Amino acid sequence: MAELFRVRDLWFAYPGRAPVLRGVDLDLAPGQRLAVTGANGAGKSTLLWLLLGLLRPNAGQIEAFGAPRRVEAEFIEVRHRAGLVFQDPDNQLFCPTVLEDCAFGPLCLGRSRAQALAVVDRTLEQLGLLHLRERITYQLSGGEKRLVSLAAVLCMEPEVLLLDEPSNGLDETTGERLLCLLKALPQAMLLVSHDRAFREHLATTGCHLHDGRLIAPPPQETQHP
Amino acid sequence: MGHRTQAGAPLPGVPDRHPAVGSPLRRLDPRTRLLAVCAFAAVVIVLEQPAALGAALALALLLILVARQPLRRILRPLAAMDGLMLIMLLTLPFTTPGTPLLQLGTEGAWGTASVEGLWLAVDIALTANAILLMLLALLGDLDPVHLGHALHRLHLPMALVQLLQFTLRYINLIHDEFSRLRVAMRARGFVAGTNRHSIRSLGYALGTLLVRSLDRSERVLCAMQCRGFTGHFPVVESLRFGSTDALVATLGVLVFSGLLWLEWHLG
Fold it and tell me: Are residues B154 and B60 part of one domain?
C-alpha cells in the first residue's frame, strides 16, 4: 500500500533566521506510529506544520496520500485527511461549546448539520467525553481541553494523526487515559513528544531530529528526562 | 506622580533610547515634537491656498529627509491612508456643484466634474498627506513608553495615556493570537466562503479572541501588581526641555506663522 506521507530533502527557514530543517526525509506508512524526538526548537512542530501546508518549505518535496503537494489548493485535501492535534489546545479550540468545536471540522468537510452532530456524538462517546458535550470550551480544565482537541480532530475521521506533544502538561491519570485512547485508534500517527514513557508505549518506530535532519534515534535515549 | 523619575544618566543596562547619532530630531524632547505636530496640523487645516498647502507639504517632506527613517516606515502608512482616501478624492469632483470641468456621457448624463470639487479634493489630499508626513517625521521613531510619558506630562488624562500605551504594546500579541486561531482553523480544513458556516466560525474566532484578550489583560494586570504597579509607569529617564527645543519651538512658531501669512496674503 502506498505511503501516507513521503518527504524528500525538505528545507525550511523562518524569515531572517538560519534554516531549521536542512534536508529532512520522512516516510509514514499506514498503521505506522512514528515518534519524532529532538531538542527544543529543533523544528519538530515546524515539520508537522509543513506537512499540512500551514508553512511553505524553501525546498524539497512533500507527497501526501500518493500525490505531490505544493500549493494551498493541494494541501486542503491533506488537511481533510490528516488531523493535527496542536501543542496548545487553546490555539485549537475556538468555538463556544465543545459540541460546536467538534462539529466545526465535519462542517468544513461539507457534512450536513445532522451528519456532523452524529459523528460528534459517536466520537465523544468513543472517547468517554459525552458529559462534556455542552460545556464551554474556555472553561475546561487542561486535561479536558487536550482530550476535547483530540476529539475535535477525530470527528473529521482522519486517516493520519499528527500529534504535537500530546502528553504535555497532563497528570499521570489523564496521560494514561490519553495513551489508552490513542493505542486503541487504527490511524497511523506521527508523534512529537518529549515524554519517553509515552513514546515507548505508543510508537512503533522512532527517529530523531538533529541539525535539521531526521536520523535514527540515539541508543539508550539518555538525554531526555 | 507616585514614582518620581530618577534624573541623570540612564541606568546601566537600560538602552539609550535617544542616541545622539542618526536623526537630529531624535534629540528633541518628545513634548516639543508632539506640540509641533499638533500646531502644524492646526495650521494646515486652516490653509486653503494651493501655494500655502504646497509649502506645508514641502516642509513636511523636508523634515522626513531630516528624520532619516527607513523608507518602508514612511511609505506603508502613507499608502494605507491614500488608498482609503482614493475613492473619496475621485468622487468629490462629481458630487460638488460648481463650474463644469469635465462631462461624462452625453450632456454629462453620467456626471459632471466641477472645478470647485477638484480643488476641494486637492486641498484634502494635500492637507492629509502633509499632516501624516509631519507626524511620521517627528513621532515615527518614538516608542510607546516615551510617547505615553510625554502625553502624561502634557496633562492628558492618565487613563487615556494608558489605553494608548497598552494598545500599542499588545496589538501585535492579539494579532498573533488571531493568526494562530486562523492556522488552527485551516488545519481542520476551513476555507472562508460566503456561507453561514464561514460567518459563524469567524464570529466564534473573533469572540474567542475577545474573551482571551480580556483574560490576558487581567493576567497582565496581576503580574504588574505583583511587581508593585499602582497606576503609574515609572520611567527611567527625565524629559528635558533644552536649548535646542527652545530653538526649534521658536523656529516652528515662525514657520507656522509664515504659512498663515502666505494663506492670508494670497487669499
Answer: no
